[in-house]
Amino acid sequence: VSNLGHVPKVEIEQGSPEVATEYTGGRFAYLGEAVTEDGLRSNNLSIILVRLALLFSYDEFRPSVAYGWMRDWHAFRGLHVRWGFNRHETNAFRWIRPPLDKDYRRLAFVACTQRGFQNLLNDPSPEEVFRSRTNSSANSENHLPEQGG
Fold it and tell me: Of 66, 89, 103, 114, which residue is the least packed, with the fewest Cβ within 10 Å?
C-alpha cells in the first residue's frame, strides 16, 4: 500500500505480481522510469540509453536479474525487447485499489535475466545501432544512396 502525499492510495493483492516469485535468488537491479524529450524519440536514443543502463548495472553489480515496469501497450509493441529486456509479463498487477491514471493500471513486468545480459554483451554496440539508424534516416530523408564501406 502506498500513500505518496497527494497521490491516492493504491493497493495490490498479496503475492502480486506473481511473476516476481520466479526470481528468488541473487542480486536484483531496478531500472526506473526514463523519459526522452519529444524531439529525440525517433532516433532510438531511448534504446541506447536503456541498454547502456542495463550494461552498466551488470558491470557494477552483477545482478541475476534487472527489472522494471512499462505500460502494457509498449510491451505489446515489443519495446522491451529493443531496450534489452528478454522477459516480460503483461498486466502483471492484480489491483485491489488501482491507480487513478488508467495507463498505470495495466503495467508489464520486464526483466533482463542472465541470458538477456549475455545477449546484450554479444549484440552490436549501442553506438553502432545509433549510427546505423541515424545514417539510414539521413539517407532516406535526403534520398541519398547508402555509402558502401
Answer: 103
